[in-house]
Write the structure tokens for this entry.
Amino acid sequence: MSPTSLRRTVSQSVAGRSPVGQLPIGVLALQGDFREHLNVLQQLGEAAVAVKTPGQLEHIAGLIIPGGESSVIDKLSRLYGLAEPIKAAIAAGLPVYGTCAGLIMLADTVLDAIEGQQSFGGLDVAVRRNAFGSQTESFETELLVPELGDVAVSAVFIRAPVVEAMGPSVRALATLDDGRVVAVEQGSLMGTSFHPEMTGDTRFHEYFVERVRSRR
Amino acid sequence: MSEKTSSNESGTNRVKRGLAEMLKGGVIMDVVNAEQAKIAEDAGAVAVMALERVPADIRSQGGVARMSDPDLIDGIIEAVSIPVMAKARIGHFVEAQVLQALKVDYIDESEVLSPADYVNHIDKWNFDVPFVCGATNLGEALRRIAEGAAMIRSKGEAGTGDVSEATKHIRTIKGQINELRSKSVDELYVAAKELQAPYELVREIAETGKLPVVLFTAGGVATPADAALMMQLGADGVFVGSGIFKSGNPAQRAAAIVKATTFFDDPSVIAAASRGLGEAMVGINVSDLAAPHRLSERGW
């Protein structure tokens, strides 16, 4: 499936529903590249809102946790009372997509965390922070993601994490050539080690939006 | 790297500029040793900047300021999991080679250190590690980007605790971008000449209304309100140098500046963060500094 054909499917499914009363998709905006996610959602014709306070969580249909520094996003989310409501929303089935630091925040287990670092959890995975080494080991590559068709996804890994272990209900969406898992989904949650919000390829976001909008 | 396949590309523009994108909305703190780096990380810094002495000490002690001792940089990299940046002297490409070999995550080609070359900056395209460079105006920012900088910070006046130069520089850069936006295409050639910057970059900015790289601000930020001021003026994030470790209670002040940077548009959060921080760094008014002692005039 080409990127365009998938986009068409998504926009049809959105257009088929009344936009009146449709809740926007939130992007956690404490730190990191949240603007890039907001831009992609808007580009897809979705109402998108930056989420900084607990009250805003009550009025969203899905949540994206952006790239950034996971130790900082963790700290700020606890300090400003977002961590517990986000955990509750995840438990209640809110669709959530995390990229890079966002994947770390969704992982039940974080390896190489700083002392006292916590995550929201929900994804039954163990994720290693900064699994490739320093910035000079950061890279971009092409990844085949069967779920998104046969055109490879261009993927940017920046001091990126990898999924080192996953429970039986977690499905790998993409792996590196060496077999390491870099994109996963489980129920209403998904996460990628890389940053689709940076490349102009919107297929991961469309995949997530479809999941949000098909939820009853 | 054994774990990478042949199709993987490191050191690309996207990868270099991308790390700066991930730091947005955050605070990068100057540290001189592993202990300070740990305090910064615990306070919520998105990255730390390793240097030999903080700017206030460089200013008061004088002498030539250089790249940090490699042992100190190793110790800082060992102590924290957030990105570690380190400063090299302007034009000192061998210090930059050394820092890349030490595997720092970002190099700051910085006017805070004594310049090693009064004519040329480092050719930053030659490196896999990304560079951040200082700028006082749009032309300077674009010249650095043309040389390969993947992130820009407005210079301010480091080591003073006086935020006025930081304000001037971010306002200048933003204002010049807005001026370009209002120009017609045939006026951009002269604009490029006047900015002393490559035409292609000038044209790109006229079209997009923003720099192609992340823009942080630096130099004189000492309080939570200073940091929020920079964010409200349109900075993507903030560097804090002497303002933290030259204050009465570094850990608490560092955490407060992080909060004010995130909630820069919420005065009640900034007010709460500003309480009970103890002494701010003493500070020097930039207007009292004789021109030869102004660091922001280094680099061109």
Notes: Chain A touches chain B through 48 residues (CB under 8 Å). The helical segments of chain A are 3-15, 34-43, 70-79, 83-91, 101-106, 203-213.
